[in-house]
Design a protein that fits this description.
With 643 residues, the protein is α+β, with helices and mostly antiparallel strands. Among the domains are: 2-158, Triger factor/SurA peptide-binding fold; 182-280, Chitinase A, domain 3, CATH 3.10.50; 418-437 and 546-576; 443-541. Helices cover 50% and strands 15% of the residues. Strands 14, 15, 16, 17, 18 and 19 form a six-stranded antiparallel β-sheet that branches. Strands 3, 6, 7, 8 and 9 form a five-stranded antiparallel β-sheet that branches.
Length: 643
């Protein structure tokens, strides 16, 4: 297991160091980037440079998703991904040949890898390299190649033109949420070392006592200014941000957007009560204050776009020859828009990178996963890719000062289409009414359960115990057994460690809880052959945050939903005007037909032939076209249904 982990570390590191910035996003982490095919069985030629079967297999093994299927539509997709990624990595290396990387720089990076992965021991390092089929010299040479790619990418990024004022202003206008101030509060606090004292002070406050006066008399902090969180200016405390308070305290205080007093909150061995006199919601900074950040964001987008254009041209001009028939793949045009073709491998790349898909593979067989992905995920991905490929044309035609990669431009267009969206008070009220449960705080109590074998003993204990002394001792003398249940809320009955439903009802819905000491005793309830009594402390009734307190929160939620809906509708309309062609269903049908025709070859003789070739698993299906740039993954619903 340890050696396998070392091998995966090396394979993953090689891919991870391939490129930097956005180029890494265009080159998903699918495994190792090996040297220039100097040994092994030739599988492909990319612009005349050989890529071996062993290199392709290393790429496949390095990603658990790609290694999860060895037959059927998923394996067919995974093979397409591996070939596409190998071709992409090879053209990147070729493009960086003019970049010089010293042996010392490569050695420094190797040392970082060894230290980061606890491989400083020479034997452990050598063992890990051997398990990956590498020598130390080969690894260091590959590191030099990858550092060259990184530097080439940086060179391309530096060629991007700087942001203009128009671009920065439009970015600012379309992303107001990125330029907001932090929320602040005007308030006071009381801090004490004793929880019982804090509870007494809280009761006094809720009975109408002056908070500032109590803070001056009792607080360990800011008592000289009546507990004011910020310095007093013009007779009022200065507003403070949430970072001015301990984490737990800040969370409780900033939840009171309509003002009010928190419960007692413990943090760091101290007990806090905070009074929020005024909540100041976030506001968008004026452009002159936000301009520097907007310029930085646009510059990053323009760097991303420069790398994307460069990589697209590299892949478009690549010549790929298949040398091993077991590594032939189909990478047809899955969609076309604005004069551009979208390769199927790009669809599969996004499927492989989808977290939901990775989770799905762990829950259902590959055949079923392929069916689900073909029917649900791939159609969504293709629509998104069409929007991305259409976006540059739409931006150009409308002469908009939007920048970025295809997907960044698509997102910018959606934001542009929704720039004038507003939220009405009626919509806020409607959301509050429809989602009232979001703003409810359930009842809560700390419960200790006392169980008796006899009803009379339980009744006698409930009537006689006065809350003084040890509960466990008193219960034991009365013939009962004590169980701590901790904090509980209604609706959790039946789950491990919670109350029985009858006892839960006695705690939260009964009207006859008997006051004893600092808590209360429930009525006696029968559960099975036992009779239970609950000792209840810190009982808090259910509460609903009033609309006034959550209005700003709801406004932001509704605004985001409306912007997304309106923006996507605008983008879809603009894309539709370009009359895109979506070939996904034809591509999937052709894949199903091709795999069905190849199925008889999976006989014992076919398996022997496949095992003899270096293609293995993902290479067992014979495809017929070389792949260019992209990534794949998933299976046909029809094929899965047949299987």
């Amino acid at each position: 297991m340890k050696r396998k982990r070392f091998v995966n570390v090396l394979l993953g590191v090689l891919a991870l160091l391939l490129v930097v910035g956005m180029a890494y996003q265009f080159t998903p982490n699918v495994g190792a980037l090996f040297g220039r095919g100097q040994k092994g069985t030739p599988a492909l030629k990319v612009n005349g440079q050989t890529v071996t079967v062993e290199e392709l297999e290393a790429l496949r093994r390095a990603n658990p998703v790609l290694a999860s299927a060895d037959s059927g539509v998923l394996a067919d997709d995974f093979k397409t991904l591996v070939v596409a990624q190998a071709a992409r990595q090879e053209v990147l290396k070729q493009a960086a040949r003019d970049i010089e990387v010293s042996r010392a720089d490569a050695n420094a990076e190797v040392q970082k890898i060894r230290e980061a992965n606890n491989l400083t021991d020479n034997k452990a390092w050598t063992d890990a390299l051997q398990a990956a089929g590498l020598t130390d010299a080969e690894f260091r040479q590959q590191m030099r190649e990858q550092l060259a790619v990184n530097r080439k990418v940086e060179e391309i990024q530096k060629s991007a033109q700087p942001a203009t004022d128009a671009e920065a202003r439009l970015y600012y206008e379309l992303h107001p949420e990125s330029f907001q101030t932090d929320p602040r509060i005007v308030g006071r606090q009381i801090v004490v070392n004793d929880k019982a004292k804090a509870e007494r002070l809280l009761r006094q406050i809720r009975e109408g006592a002056d908070f500032a006066q109590l803070a001056s008399q009792n607080s360990l902090e800011f008592k000289d200014r009546g507990g004011a969180l910020g310095p007093i200016e013009n007779g009022s405390p200065r507003p403070v941000a949430q970072v001015a308070l301990p984490a737990e305290v800040g969370t409780a205080a900033f939840a009171l957007t309509g003002g009010g007093v928190t419960d007692v909150v413990e943090s760091g061995g101290k007990f806090y009560i905070v009074k929020v006199e005024r909540y100041l919601p976030p506001v968008t900074k004026p452009f002159d204050q936000a301009k520097a950040d907007a310029v930085t964001a646009v510059n990053e987008q323009k760097k991303n776009a420069a790398v994307e254009r460069w990589l697209t041209e590299l892949e478009r001009g690549a010549k790929i020859e298949v040398l091993d028939p077991n590594w032939k793949t189909e990478n047809p045009t899955v969609a076309s828009v604005a004069g551009q073709n979208i390769p199927y491998s790009e669809v599969v790349a996004q499927v492989v990178g989808n977290q939901n898909f990775a989770g799905l593979l762990g829950q259902v067989p590959p055949e079923q996963a392929g069916q689900l992905v073909n029917s649900i995920l791939k159609p969504q991905i293709v629509e998104g890719l069409i929007q991305g490929y259409a976006a540059p044309k739409i931006v150009q035609d409308k002469k908009l000062a939007l920048t970025g990669t295809r997907q960044e431009l698509a997102a910018g267009l959606a934001a542009y289409g929704a720039r004038n969206v507003q939220v009405t008070d009626a919509e806020i009220r409607q959301y509050y009414a429809n989602n009232r449960q979001q703003f409810e705080t359930p009842a809560q109590a700390t419960v200790t359960e006392i169980s008796f074998p006899d009803q009379n003993k339980a009744l006698a204990f409930r009537q006689s115990w006065n809350g003084q002394g040890s509960l466990a001792t008193a219960a034991a003398k009365a013939g009962g057994t004590v169980s701590e249940r901790g904090e509980v809320s209604p609706g959790t009955a039946g789950t491990p460690g919670t109350l029985d439903a009858a006892l839960e009802a006695a705690v939260f819905t009964a009207k006859d809880l008997r006051p004893v000491g600092e808590g209360r005793l429930s009525d006696v309830v029968k559960v099975g052959n036992r009779y239970l009594v609950a000792y209840v402390t810190d009982l808090k009734p259910a509460a609903v945050q009033p609309l006034a307190q959550v209005r700003d929160q709801i406004r932001e939620t509704v605004l985001a939903e409306k912007r997304n809906e309106v923006g996507q509708a605008y983008l879809a309309k603009e894309v539709a005007a370009l009359k895109p062609v979506n070939n996904l269903q034809k591509v999937l049908a052709a894949q199903e037909k091709r795999l069905a025709a190849a199925a008889p070859q999976s006989s014992a003789e076919g398996k022997q032939d496949a095992g003899a070739s270096s293609g293995k698993g993902a290479a067992s299906t014979d495809n017929s076209a070389a792949t260019k740039g992209g990534t794949p993954e998933t299976g046909s619903a029809q094929d899965a249904a047949k299987r």
